[in-house]
Amino acid sequence: MIAGKILYVDDEEPNLISFRYLFKKNFEIHLANSAEEGLDILKSEQIHIILTDQKMPGTSGVEFLKKIATIYPDPIKILLTGYADIGTVVEAINLGQIYRYMAKPFQPEEMLVTLKNAMEVYNLRMQNKELLTTLIETNKQLNLFNEDLENKVRERTETLTKTLDEINGLKFQQDGDYYLTSLLIEPLGRNSVISDRVKVEFFLKQKKEFQFKGEFNTLGGDINIAHNIKLMNKSYVVFLNGDAMGKSTQGAGGAIVLGTAFEVIMERVRSFKWGKNLMPDEWIYNTYHELNQTFLTFEGLMMVSMVLGIIEEETGNMYFINAEHPMPVLYRNGKASFISEEQNYNKLGFPPIDTKPRVSIGNVKLVSGDIVFLGSDGRDDVVMGTHPNGQPRVNEDLERFLTCVENGNGNLQEIFQFIKKDATLLDDISLLKVSYLG
User: Fold this and answer.
1) What digits encode the pLDDT tens for the residues 241-294?
2) pLDDT at 152
3) How far does CA 330 lie from the centroid of its chain?
4) Domain boundaries 178-436, corresponding CATH code
């Protein structure tokens, strides 16, 4: 485990001196009395934790963190602020600038625990990147292998130099690859929720169908996941509906990476103390950020849309992030409506093109009997007849899904029947149903 280097920025000299005295035995401390001096230190030192006061002459703490966010994304960022600045702090959290905030004056014991937790988050994040390197390389090789296999099949068919037995042999090998890939995905798309207040149900139909050794199976890039977690000693249900870019094995590779990375996050929450002292909106933002950092390593070659949500079991308060995914739907008293008409964040792995802030994390208060539906592109991507020129007419009515939910009375199987009624499916389709029982 690497030694922790902390940069503390504060315009009040006594605060800097006191901070170094309190924590110099635990960390390597670097002090700056302005944002400009702090930036100079970042240029010369590999800092792991950045702690900054909010109210400083010239550049404020939030402004300083915004300025360095894209240049130094890895350090864990903590903001010190007075209670009068809480509005600014909430805005900063929504914009993704800080790991957490602490009120001034801080208690040394609480600060020490916070710094140790932050350092553990940093170390685990770095370890996770290393652990995923092997998986990333394996996935690249898998894509290259399948591209090579498809080229071989095409060449042998065009030249008619191979026998039907040889072609069937290649198809058997390809179906074997599909089968092995499907075995990797299956345990990642888990619904492990146990709750008297929240019920989660899955529906999944991948577009690619294949047969291997007499068994029929499917393969695609859609995935549903749901788990129980505890934050601040309160019980929550987290859920995710994701859709990886690409067809068959390419999409399946994205689903494997997403499922694996999310399982790592869940295991850390269950096994370690870090993260359990976060509020649900902070936790969901940190989770999105870590998943996004994983997919950014593919440099735009692998991206995933998703909705990630978390519900407090006792109150029904739900937070969610929509990363360029179809809009969540609320089914209440027999009527279906979109919860939000905005995508909150870019797809996982979408290369950043600017630093423009996105909208805040979505929030809705569920009441007893409410049902939330998430769904992939397949819920809307259907062909409904033809245009006058004979071209297929793809559905463009996004509210068609609302009608399907109402006609299906909130039942997943019936909703699916209405989706494909008088229509041809074009894509994988996955639905995730969250019922709040109160």
Assistant:
1) 999 987 767 788 889 999 999 998 988 888 776 567 889 999 999 999 999 999
2) 66
3) 21
4) 3.60.40.10
Q: Where are the domains of the chain?
A: 5-124, 178-436
Identify residue 237 by its one-letter amino acid code.
Answer: V
> Domain 5-124 is in which class?
alpha beta
Q: Please give the C-alpha separations between residue 183 and each of 141, 180, 217, 231, 279, in angstroms, as whole numbers.
A: 18, 5, 10, 32, 35
Q: Check: CB of residue 200 under 8 Å from CB of residue 433.
A: yes
Q: Is 142 left (phi over 0), alpha (psi -120 to 50) or beta?
A: alpha
Tell which phi-psi region holds residue 202, choosing left (phi > 0), alpha (psi between -120 and 50) or beta.
Answer: beta
Cis peptide leading into residue 351 (ω within 30°): no
Q: Is 76 left (phi over 0), alpha (psi -120 to 50) or beta?
A: beta
Report pLDDT for 173. 56
H or E element: which one contains 216?
A: strand 215-219
The span from the CA of 408 to the CA of 410, in Å, is 5
Tokens standing for residue 173: 């090998």
- Looking at residue 386, its amino acid is T
Q: Are 157 and 167 in contact (CB under 8 A)?
A: yes
Q: Which residue has the tokens 């350090």?
A: 75
Could you please report the per-residue DSSP string of 270-334?
Answer: HH-STTTTS-HHHHHHHHHHHHHHHHHTTTTSS-EEEEEEEEETTT-EEEEEEES-PPPEEEETT
Q: What 3-state class would DSSP assign to 165?
A: helix
Q: Which residues of 229-253 are buried (b: 16+ CB within 10 A; e: fewer)?
A: bebeeeebbbbbbbbbbbbbbbbbb
CB contact at 8 A, 244 and 291: no
* Torsional class of 108: left (φ above 0), alpha (ψ -120 to 50), beta (otherwise): alpha
Range in 26-30, 163-167, 216-220, 323-327 with the lowest mean pLDDT: 163-167
Neighbours of 279 (CB within 10 A): 14
Assess contact for 246 and 305: CB atoms under 8 A: no
Those residues whose C-beta lies under 8 Å from the C-beta of residue 29, and which sit 6 or more positions away, are 6, 8, 19, 20, 23
Both structure tokens of 280: 């649900």
